[in-house]
Amino acid sequence: MDQHPSRRRIVPALAAGLALLAPAPAGAAITPTRSAGDLASALTEGGSAQVTGASFVTIPPNGNPAAVSDVALAGFPKQGGRYVILSSGDAAAAQNASQGAGASLSLGAMARTPAGSDRDATVLKLDLKVPSGANCVTFAFRFASEEFPEYVGRQYNDAFIAELGTTTWTTSASAITAPGNFAFDPANNVVSINATGPATVAPAEAAGTVYDAATQILRASTTVTPGTRSLFLSIFDQGDGILDSTVLLDDLIVGAAAPGACKAGVTTGPAPVQPGGLPPAFGPNGVISVPSNKKCVSRRKFRIRIRKRKNLKYETAIVFVNKKRVRVVKGRRLTAPVDLRGLPKGRFTVQITVITTTGAIISGKRTYRTCAPKRTTGKTPNL
Ligand SMILES: [Ca+2]
Ligand SMILES: [Ca+2]
After folding, report:
1. DSSP class per residue in 241-281
2. Which of 215, 301, 316, 336 is the least crowded, having the fewest Cβ atoms under 10 Å away?
3. CA of residue 145 to ligand 2 center, whole Å
């Protein structure tokens, strides 16, 4: 691999840069860890993602490529008190440093593949339990790099990659092939110092860190189906192992997004999801309160109520009785009076669809039967 002459000069600056590091404020620290479980805990605390397994696919043999931090830094933490730092150098070097210092440490890790040009890669694997009703995985991140501005458009294309299901990215010379990456810029490229649009790096965004430029705080999201799904988060050097890059990560959420709202690619907006999936339609934890259908319904009128639930706001509800739409009243709660008078005797079906303000849909159907007439009386039965 070619080495630009000036890259050699930057290495001696490392010792001076580390000497400038002030101790962490009392009670707050960037704590290096090689426990993937610690990282999962910091990434999900205060949120609703359930991590059932955490491990490293790859982690460099030396140094501190991963850390948990509770130091307020570059807009982090985003949720809860802690966040995660993954680095192709020293994850603990991010704080209280001069941007004039050089963040540059070779951690001794060679490429994933024999022909690869990546170095010092850390790939964190998180197994997420995606509950019924959830359809989106999303997290917040900021990528920062020492490669800016000298190596923009060069072969030292350090990058951050997020993948779901499997990790397949590879490198060759200055190229990165990452077909499964969902944290891509508007040009479908990985987030690096060469990224565009909202992922463009700038020096001001790295303020407070040792790095020379960073992206704004971004969000990466991808659609997902219920079950156990693996999330892979990768950071690496490219071209050589020096002039490091780092990613700050937090606010990992598995939840329910409105149709079309959970889009792959980086964004700057809020999380597009209702955290934690959706409650069921019926039952003790359900959002729809209706009479039991175990017994026949003898009343001629009843009222369907939409229950208040934490983190849920309703836009509207749509109710059909035997395919005929019923008026829904929006008061302190959404309610729908169901009037069975005039309906034929026998079975009837109530179909309820609740739409939340995030566009998520909770729907359910209940079939009732009217009470059978007492054969001995001959009177007209009540419903
Ligand atoms: Ca490195
Ligand atoms: Ca580098």
Report:
1. S-S-EEEEEEEEEEEEE-TTTS-SSEE-S---EEET----S
2. 301
3. 8
95 C-alpha to center of ligand 1: Å? 17
Q: How far is the CA of 224 from the centre of ligand 2 (A)?
A: 32
Give me Rg for the CA atoms of the chain. 27
Q: pTM of the full predicted structure?
A: 0.74
In a shared domain, residues 338 and 207? no
Rounded Cα distance, 19 and 17, in Å: 5
Q: Which residues contact 292 (CB under 8 A, 6 or more apart)?
A: none
Alpha-carbon span 150 to 146, nearest angstrom: 9
Q: Which ligand is nearest to the CA of 60?
A: 1
Q: Is residue 375 part of a domain?
A: no
CA of 94 to the centre of ligand 1 (A): 13
List all residues 6 or more positions away from 123 whose beta carbon is below 8 Å from its beta carbon: 56, 57, 58, 59, 167, 232, 233, 234
Which pLDDT does position 94 carry in this prediction? 84
Say how many domains are in the chain: 2
Q: What angle do CA 286, 332, 314 make, to 5 degrees?
A: 50
Q: Which ligand is nearest to the CA of 119?
A: 1
Residue-level pLDDT at 144: 97
Supply the DSSP symbol for 95: B
Least confident piece of the model among 34-48, 91-105, 241-255, 296-310 = 296-310
Asked whether the beta carbons of 182 and 220 are under 8 A apart, the reply is: yes
Helix (H) or strand (E) holding 39: helix 36-44
Distance CA 162, CA 328 (A): 43
The residue whose two tokens read 């890259």 is 7
Choosing from 250, 275, 300, the residue where a domain stops is 275
Q: Distance between alpha carbon 357 and the CA centroid of its chain, in Å?
A: 19
